[in-house]
Write a structure and sequence with these properties.
metal ion binding, binds magnesium ion, alpha+beta, cytoplasm, 4-stranded antiparallel sheet, 7 helices, metal-binding, about 140 residues, binds ribavirin triphosphate
Length: about 140
């Protein structure tokens, strides 16, 4: 299987509860290598742009409010089959439906405040990585 990169966000609810270290440790324990990282506080325009695919949906305004409510930690994770394996690791959008042992089941507060984001396919991974990182900020190892 090919080495892939995916975009992960540790979302405001998890940052506010000081869960960054515990969540990053879960990524590494599951074989994901952190090849880029930054912390930032999204503006409204940045949050709207990142989640543009959801514009017009009932939850969009609440999602933007939530994503701008506190800082986030954005990372690029590398692994064979990173995109699919990361979605499996975080679990379903709604923590009540997320499988036991997934990050959302363990940490998320609600369907909106669900602690982590992950790219949902190769084209979104490419777009989302470029949304936050210049190529020079990504540091793959051998
Ligand atoms: P994400 O993009 O953040 O990784 O989450 P996802 O693919 O599992 O879910 P998606 O459908 O892309 O929704 C994006 C984020 O919007 C919030 N949401 N709230 N209250 C609601 O009905 C609702 N639905 C979605 C969540 O924060 C979700 O992760
Ligand atoms: Mg999504």
């Amino acid at each position: 299987m090919a080495l892939e990169q995916t975009l992960s966000i540790i979302k405001p609810d998890a940052v506010k509860r000081d869960l960054i270290g515990r969540i990053l440790a879960r990524f590494e324990a599951e074989g994901f290598r952190i090849v880029a990282a930054k912390m930032l506080h999204l503006s409204e325009a940045q949050a709207q742009g990142f989640y543009a695919e959801h514009e017009g949906k009932a939850f969009f305004a609440g999602l933007v409010d939530y994503m701008t409510s506190a800082p986030i930690m954005v990372t690029v994770l590398e692994k064979e089959n990173a995109i699919g394996d990361y979605r499996t690791l975080i679990g379903a959008t709604n923590p009540e439906e997320a499988a036991p042992g997934t990050i959302r089941r363990d940490f998320a507060l609600s369907k909106t405040q669900n602690s982590v984001h992950g790219s949902d396919g190769p084209s979104s991974a490419e777009r989302e990585i470029a949304y936050f990182f210049a190529e020079s900020e990504i540091c793959p190892r051998d």
